[in-house]
Each structure stands twice: as C-alpha cells, then as structure tokens.
Amino acid sequence: MKKIYALTAGEVLHALITSEQGLAEDDARRRLHEYGFNEIQEVRRTPLYRRLLSQFTHFLAVLLWIAAGLSLLSEYLRPGGGMLFLGLAIIGVIVVNAVFTFIQEYRAERAVQELEKLLPYTVRVVRKGVLKDIPAREVVPGDLILLKEGDRVPADARLIRSIRLSVNNAPLTGESELKPRSHEPFDGDYFESPNIVFAGTLVVAGSGTAAVFATGMATEFGKIAHLTSSVEPELSPLQREIARVTRIVAVIALTTGIVFFGVGLLTGKSFWQTLLFAVGITIANVPEGLLPTVTLSLAMGSQRMAKRRALVKNLTSVETLGSVTVICTDKTGTITQNRMEARRVWLPGIGFLDAGAKEWNRSTERMDMLMTTSLLCNNARYENGAYHGDPTETALLKAAHAWDAALAAKRIYEIPFDAERKRMTTVNSFRGTPYVFMKGAVETVLPLCTALKVNSTVSALDERQRAALLDASAALMEEGLRVIAFAYRRRDDFVPERLGSLPDAQLESEMIFAGLIGLEDPPRPEVFKAIETCRTAGIRVIMITGDASRTAAAIARRTGIAGEHPLVIEGPTMSSLTDEKLGEMLGSGDVIFSRMTPHHKMRIVSALMDRGERVAVTGDGVNDAPALKKADIGIAMGITGTDVAREAADVVLLDDNFATIVNAIEEGRAVFENIKKFINYIFASNIPEIVPYIAYVLFRIPLPLTIIQILAIDLGTDMFPALALGAERPSPEIMKQPPRGRRERLVNFDLLGRAYLFLGPIEAFAGLYGFFFVLDAGGWQWGETLSPHTLLYLEATTACFAGIVITQVANVFACRTFRESVFTIGLLSNRLIVIGIVLEIAITVFIIYTPWGNALFGTAPLGPHVWLTLLPFSVLLLAAEEGRKLLVRKFAV
Description:
The chain is of the alpha+beta class. It is built from 31 helices and 26 strands. A hairpin with a 2-residue loop joins strand 15 and strand 16.
C-alpha cells in the first residue's frame, strides 16, 4: 500500500474517507468519539499530593521542624514543662503555612488556566462545503484544514493544495529553517516529504489546504511527548529573590537562637530556660506567612491585569512587568485603532482626490485601473453583510466597492505579501486576458514600473514623473497616512498553467504605475495619556514599524512618542549599522524605526538589553516570535496576533491596546511594592518579639512574651492585615517614579532600617511598657521572680502582647506607602485592610477575653485602663511614620 505522502490529492481524500467538501458534522462527531480530542496529554505532571508535601520540606519548614523536634525532645526529657504544647503549636504553624501556600498556589494556577481560555486556539476547517472556525482540540482525521501565514499546524496533515507555502519545523526538529511545502506526491522519506505538515509546526509564508490524518498523541509531536518527561521550569528573578530573602531570614533566626542560647547559659540561666528562650527567639525571627502572601499578591495582580484586558501567562511575569524601562511597540493596531479607511488618492497627471469627492465614482475612468488593482490584488472578502480580512486590505476593498462593487475576475496565481518583499502580486483573468496586479510599499513597487497611466493614456515613466510620484507619497505620509502604491500590466504572453514555474522577477517586470491610496488609521484616544504616563514613569517608548518613515514620524509626533525632530532609522540604514553604532543611536534620544523587518526588530531588542534596559516588546506576526522570546517581557496581540506570537509571549493584550501595556506595568510595579510592604510590616513586628527575650536574658525580669503568644501574633493577629497589604492597589504615585534598577532588592538597607531601627523599636517599647505597667500596678519589685501561672504574670504578658497588636494596627496603615502620606490615598480605601483589622481585633478578643483563649495562649483579661494606656503608642507610631515620610519627601534628592 502506498504511503500517504506518495498519493495524489484525490487518492488522499479517498483514503481518509473524505472529500473536497470536508466531513459532515455527524461524521466529525463520530470520529471525535472514536479518536478522542486533538490534544497532547500531560506526560508527567507533578501529582497534587507531592506538590502539597513539598510545602513541608522547604528551608523555612525544615527550620520549624527542627524547633518542633527540640520542643518535643525537651518535653520527653522534662515532662510537664509545657514544651509538648509548644511543639504541637509549631507543627501547627508548619501545617497551616503549608496548606495555605498550597491552596494559594493552586488557586493562582487555576486562575491562569481559566484566563487562558479567553483565547481559545481555533482552526479554520471545511465542513460539508462550509468554512468554519472550530477549537483545535475538535479537529479529527479527515478534516480539511486551511493554513495561512502565522498559523500553528494543529495536527499531522497531507497538503492537497498549496500556494508558496513554507513552514518552520523548529518545534519538532529544533532546526529553525524555512521548509518549502508542496502538494505534489513525493517518493522518499516520510520526514523529508514536502507535502506533509506536522502538528505544532509553524506556517511562516503562503497558504494551503491539508487533509488531517493524525491527531493528538498519534501525531509525531505526540509520540515525542510520550517519550519525554516533564522538565521543571527555572526559577524566575522574583522567585530567586524570595528564596534569597528567606535564606537570609532563616540564617539570622538560627544564628540569633544559637548565640542567645550561649548567652543564656553564660548568664546563669538553666538549660531548660535557655532552650525555651532560644526556640522562642528563633521563631520570632521567622516570617511564616511570607510565601503565601507573595503568591496571593501575584495572583491578585494577575486577576487585576485580566480585568484591565492583559492576560498574564505565568504569575512571575506580573512582577517583571513592573521593572520595564523600554517599550518597543508596533504602530498599527497598538498605537492606532487598526481601523483603516481610504482618505486620499493620488493619480498621475491629476493629483490628489479626497474620499467622497465627485471624481470618486464610476462615471469617470480616471481611477479605473487603480481601483481595479485595489479590488483584485486583495485577499479581504465581503460575506454576510460584513468585511473580513486584514484591516489594510479591508479598507482597500471598501474603497474599491465604493467605486464599483460589481467588478470581478478569476484569480489564476498569487505571490503572497511578506515582510521582506513588502508587496503582493496576483495574476487574474480580467476581460478575458491575464493581468498582473501589484500593490505594496512605494519603494518596492516603483522600481518595477516602466510606465504610468495618465487618464486613459499609458506613457513611459521618466525621472521627472518618478520624482513627482515620490513627492506625492511623501506629502501623504506627512499627513500620517499609510501609503499604498498600485501597478498592473496586461500579459497576453502568459500561459496560466506555467505561472508557477516563472521567476518572480519575470512575472513582476515592466509594470504600469496606477496611483497611490492614502489610508488613515487614527491613534487610539487613550494612547495620548498612556504615552504621557510612560514619560512620567521614566519608561521610554520606541516605535518599530513596517510603515514608511514619514508616516511613522507623523504618528509618533502626534501621540507624543517623539518630539518634532526625532532620529528616524529606516530598514536599509539599519542593515548597514554595526551593533556598536546601533547602541549609540538608541541612547541618543527620540528614535523611530521604520520599514523594519522581523530580523531588524530582534537586533533592536538585543541592543537595548545589552545596554542594560529591561525591554517589553509587542508583536503579532509569526516572525515577531524571536523578539518576543528574547525580550524580558514579550507582549502579543490577542485580537490580530497569530497563534505563534501568542505562544511566544509572556503577556497577551486582549484588546491590542498600548494603554493596556501601561496599565499592566502599573500593576506589576504594585506587586513588587506590595511584597515590600508586607516584608516591612512583618519585619517591624520581629523587633517587639525579639526584644523581650533579650531583656529576659540580660536583665533579672520575668519573660515578657511567651512563645505561644509570638505564634498568636505571627499566624493569628498579623496574618490577615498582612495579606491585605499584599492585595493593595497601585498607589497614585507609583507611575511617577522611575523603574527600579536591576540591582534593587526586596530587602535593602532602607527597608531594614525602617523596620528594625524605627517602627520596630516603637512597637517594642509599647509592648514592654504595657508589661511593666501591669507589673508595677500589681506591686512587683525588680528582681522578683514570678510563677508563670500567677495572675499578675499572665496579665503582664497579655499587656505586652496587646501593646504589640495595637501598634501593629497602626503599622499596617503606616506600611501602605513608603513616601507619600497614607492620608493621600485614603485611610480606609483598601477594604481588605479594614476587614483584616476587624479579624485581627476579633482574634485578639478571643485570645484575651475567652477561657479557651486564656488556656491556649497563657493570657488573662485586661481592664480598660490598660488599653487606654497602650492606645497612645498606636497614635505615636503612625504620627512618627508620617513625620518620617514628610522629611523624606522634603529632603530626598
């Protein structure tokens, strides 16, 4: 039996029991049930139970396991000392932390999966003679799929028709080379067959129709996936930074515990007292809620981005966006509305005509061949009362229909448009004779023309006329219009059956210039404010477009991307620049890149990154994929973008809008700031938890704060306000600051100084003041020992606990901003913080005023006079922090 690649197109359809009309819907449903969905099954996804168990074995968890083990060992060696309860409490910390983190990460992952469903991967198929778009997972053997530039091949298929089709098999073979495809039978090796397209590969040029013969795990891609185990992704910069912070904190905690264990022994404390102290001070230094709060902050950031029309494909990209220093953006559809309309034409010997002018109608033949070319050299279509296709071609089709909607001719051959040629050519049977029609950029069409049409007369094209034509093109571009040139030629000598063997140069020679059409694509209204926001935020915007320089410069000036005299670099100039010279030009001020190819775009991104910039780049085509992968953040268009571009990108714009990029950067900056706020908040509470233990060792006083009370603060009262800080919305000032540097850390000297040397000591003083206030009122004398079970001691430690909690309430408001007054953003503007504080107060009431709380946490009820004594410290902390911020704003350079 012949292999499928050796069959003719008709034999292929017969073998797959299908036809050129495609499958019937009933047959497609039956085959879907028989063969299953067209999708690659997960090879070795980490089971949920293993992911949960991993939360019990990270560095912080191991540290707590050691503390729990020491506590249980102490209880075993010295029963009745309360260490059993402590050990169980620490194990509870580990379990709560692990489960919470797992739930947050799982929910965040599920949220991203749900968001990705907003962009289903669809395929165009023929079903019973009707073209329709279906989800790729519903493609079945026997389906006829239509392929075009930018598509990802959904299944293994045999071509039955093709027009200059080329694919990139890199996803399958690893070799990123252009592979021409043909629908002709082939006698050779299966993998070398030019009439086979494989699932997962990319269409980079041309178009074609193919019959599917293998789907899902039966494809070559699926067979390889079956033999390949999953690879763990590398840690992102944020993940590495979080790991660094946790290691530093853990080392500090362990070192502090060991050092003060030694100090306790040297000062004459008993072994058990000292061990109790060492375990307590270790736990006091450990931020148990750090990882779940980071995960929650990233997840909520991604959700907010989704609401603002930006789909983040992985959570860590949320934070990376916030560090962007340069945005390399396309023009059409991103800066502009991608809503092309023909505004003006220029005809040889006549000049400019505006849309709607009386000359723009069929009563005159002045635009005869211009509009004929616009209509026939065009892949847009008018179906069911609506236009479909590329916006440029749709605008040209509308213009041609406004002139004469009835004109038609059979297309014989096509050379598709591509980014390198910047033109499209078709051969049509028009008026009974083959005609070549061409449209494209002026610089690629004009050199192929030897004549032009003036009214109804064709004459030779001389240099004076060429100059006039170029001047007309420049005038249209200065108005910000995209200029398309048109040419044609009657070719009586062409034999339609031999067109495929003719060189392009012969097919596109000696053309007759027909005229110019200027298309308007107005800027998006919201772009103006977004560009201004970028300038305020220290983010540079560089336009990289395939349009002509004058058009690009006009739009750049109009939107504020560039000033009156930007440096404009065109494609031919770009090709002659060395990397060093390109780097110099990128640092020279406003730069616009026009007539750029995808290769040029990749060079620009690389050059910017070599200069130390963090680059976000937009793209929509298959050839943009390398630049999207190379950049720190690749941003694909969700509406006009190809599957390949969306797959290569980190972020997908659901509305293709530049302003959405700026919104996403704002959210990314907020995520990083929120993590810092949370760290500042919990680090500040470490000091009042540590200082009582230091005082206990160095001075002859009872222990002011017990270990279980520290746990009540870290995982009870502090947790909900801390999580609310992680969900803080972007502050009004966040886009008025420059991007953070590559070396900026989550934990730096400023943050440590603020937490450990300013906020923390105020809280520590409040806690100790409450402790000694109660002791003094109860008649305690310095040096007097107290039993841990006496009411006075229980009330005193409770007052210390209450002093820390009441100042932490003020601290959560203080940590909402770093420089600006919290009153400028509204004290109660974050409802989650209000809810967090309500829960914090409720937990505190439970701990202090219920028998169960007293028994569990070693507390006793406090009188109102104690709270009135502690309340001023909360006001003091907030006032002191507001004063610090005022000084920072006044004297900061």
